[in-house]
Amino acid sequence: MGAFEFLIQGLGTALQPAMLLYALIGVTLGTAVGVLPGIGPALTVALLLPVTYHLDPAGSLIMFCGIYYGGMYGGSTTSILLNTPGESSSIITALEGNKMARAGRGGPALATAAIGSFIAGLIATLFLAFLAPWIVKAALAFGPREYFALMVLAFVTVSSAFGDSTLRGLTSLFIGLGLACVGIDQLTGQARMAFGVPELLDGVEVTTLAVAMFAVGEALAIAGLGSRAADEVIPVKGSVWMTAKDWSRSWKPWLRGTAIGFPIGAMPAGGAEIGTFLSYATEKRLTKHPEEFGKGAIEGVAGPEAANNASAAGTLVPLLTLGLPTSATAAIMLAGFQQFGLQPGPLLFATNPTLVWGLIASLLIANAMLLILNLPLIGLWVRLLTIPRHWLYAGILLFATLGTIGANPSTFELGMLLGFGLLGYVMRLFGYPIAPVVVGLILGPMAEQQLRRALSISQGDWMTLVQSPIAAILLGIAALAFIVPLILRQSGKGEVLSQLAGDED
Amino acid sequence: MSQADQNNQRRADRAALVIALGLALFGAVLLWDSARLADLGGYSGVGPASMPRIIGLALLGLAIWTAAEAWRGDFPERPEQHAGPVLWVVGGLVAQLLLLNVAGFSIATGLLFGLTARGFGKRNLALTVGIGIVLSFFVWAVFSQLLSLHLPAGPLERVFFPKG
């Protein structure tokens, strides 16, 4: 059966009323957290993990993907109307989008963002569906050493390839890897870094760490800035509909943004913001209205918004086909799969095709729901932006601790939440990226296991790691991704990389 | 810019040196802990202690690198921090942590809610803690009764739901 038949079957699953409800809850929540500054999809999925423990696995995963897609849509609203990006992947949108809103063209800016997101989401999800079986077929030939090489590549791209400092990226990664050592060793059953504390035998929970770093750390960092004037929300004047000229200027950037965003999301190359930056640069070079750039050019909203949605779909390619998360949200979704005893990867396509294809098909449905939620109902979301900060952050911490208490109602777990929250605060203060810690914590044990398996097979010969052509190529790319940025930064050409900083989502 | 100016600007960053110390400490703990593990490497020669050792050594290396950058003053500028609001939020988290199993979810989390709002500039604690307790109780009722999440019950919750 080809991808097309599987997709039709998946639509059958995804169109069941219960699944539609899960998708609707997911996209609604996702849009809300995307709009609200201070919380993103990674945190939201982490908070929901304990709540969904008793729910249906397929439905929960559909909801998580809906949150991921919804967050990408919602972020643009905040960028355009508030000039404070809700998500790291919407920073570029704020450049032109906020200028458009100030010039009274907020409506068309929101429309081109939403329609561009829809088109990009649609095309990229179809790419995902047709690409997945091919990658799964190739991945069946992967052994432990190929997986280990892939994970090393993911480590490098997530931590040190982008951002403004190799040192701080690597430090974040190794903090995550160090925390991953806590608990019982998977292969020999020995307790590591537990110091006789029974609570530590289970290791550090990914959800606790993510909630602490993203919610508590962020709240402390914002509180530390002290009182400042509230941001000004620009009201949407006039129609949200685009004129014929807006359409003709938008459709090419949408397609180009999709073409740029999807591969970047699909390769283990960090978060969605990189694609948005490249798309913006491309549109700026190709535009027929260069004088408008910096003053509110619609291309500068259409392209990057399409790119960030396309790369969200792209991120699902390595996650579903290889079990390899390349962003913080994907890392937490992997924890979500594991919570239900599912391991994404080539085997999941064989053992549980209904779930995988239902999930992929539901993305198409979620995408359509998001277009409706974000165009006619935009006024509702704008109102979320007027919530005062003291209620917003008090509420965020309420739900953050609810998630942790729900997973494990112990004082010890809350103590870890506070401790990692303070760690996240200090890391933010000193410019350390957060995502590598989360990715290191979840991928660390997997990489260790694959390495030890590979070396067991080769009876301790480390050369085995480069004797398979695929593994050797992957490790070679990883080495390049490590060394080239290092040289660029040394020679003072690091600004581009620092603008590509991979942050939260 | 004269040489003296540059020296003045690029002086050692003490806070970053403390970070370097923390990293070195974390690395040392990893090495110390892995030393007592029986390294059952088997055929692979790589046992449970190998990975912590590699990570521990890497952290020591990163600590030296951090110290060098701190010494040269290479760390980015930090926004000025106000200790007061941060301490209110931390205080809220500590209060919740200490009271959770004594006073129950609603009261403990209500305090967290109120103290966090205080940290963000809403001064009327009687109001914010009150709202926090009511909201937390509502959340408790929904999540523990409808979604069967285990959230600690206290005196307040038992008044309304005697079974907990």
Could you characterize what this model shows?
The complex is a heterodimer of chains A (505) and B (164). Chain A is mainly α and 505 residues long. Chain A has 22 helices and 2 strands. Chain A has helices at 3-14, 17-35, 41-51, 57-82, 91-102, 106-139, 144-161, 166-180, 206-224, 244-266, 273-286, 299-322, 328-339, 346-351, 353-374, 378-384, 389-407, 411-429, 435-457, 464-467, 469-490, 495-499; strands at residues 183-184, 191-192. Chain A has a two-stranded antiparallel ribbon with strand order 1-2. Residues 501-505 of chain A have low confidence and may be disordered. By secondary structure, chain B is mainly alpha-helical. Chain B is built from 7 helices and no strands. Chain B has helices spanning 3-9, 14-35, 50-72, 83-103, 105-119, 125-146, 155-160. Chain B is flat, with a radius of gyration of 25 Å. The interface between A and B is large, with 65 and 78 residues.
Task: Offer a concise description of the structure.
The complex is a heterodimer of chains A (505) and B (164). With 505 residues, chain A is mainly α. Helices cover 72% and strands 1% of the residues of chain A.
